[in-house]
Amino acid sequence: MTSPDVLTIRPSEHTSGTALVTMVAVRPRHIEQVMITVYDWETHSYRPIRVDASQMWFWTDEWQLLEHEADEDLRHGRYEDFDSMDDFINSL
């Protein structure tokens, strides 16, 4: 296994628990893990975490913004519950 590369990310107003990835620098070799630093809004501190390189899509600005929007929808009750898959499909 290769040693993790290091990526530092900054906090953003769009996040509630962790910061967004602002840049990913990829070296021209296979990367298995990436070490990133996230900002924890509860403790107001940065903490390093290891991320499987195949999961870096989750830490992109675009994906984190979508995660934040989904959290806001849940928080404000903007969703529907269905008793069955049939009920869901019939609602479409």
Overview of this protein structure:
This protein is 24% helix and 22% strand. It is α+β, with helices and mostly antiparallel strands and 92 residues long. The protein has one domain. A three-stranded mixed beta sheet has the order 1-2-3, with no helix packed on it. The model is unreliable at 1-6 and 18-24 (pLDDT under 50).
Summarize this structure briefly.
With 92 residues, the chain is an alpha+beta fold. It is 24% helix and 22% strand. It contains 2 helices and 3 strands; from the N terminus they run βββαα.
Question: What is the secondary structure topology, with strand pairs?
Answer:
Blueprint: E1 5-8, E2 33-40, E3 45-52, H1 61-75, H2 85-91
Q: What percent of residues adopt helix (DSSP H or I)?
A: 10-25%
Radius of gyration, CA atoms, in whole angstroms: 17 Å
Q: What series of H and E elements makes up the topology? A: EEEHH
Provide mean pLDDT, rounded.
75
- Would you tell me the structural class of the helices and strands? alpha+beta
Shape: elongated
- Distance from first to last alpha carbon: 47 Å
Strand order of the largest sheet: 1-2-3
Largest sheet: 3 strands, mixed
Oligomeric form of this entry? single chain
Total helical elements: 2
Instruction: Give the uncertain stretches in residue-range form.
Output: 1-6, 18-24
Number of domains: 1
Strand content: 15-25%
Total beta strand runs: 3
Labels describing this entry:
alpha+beta; 92 residues; 2 helices
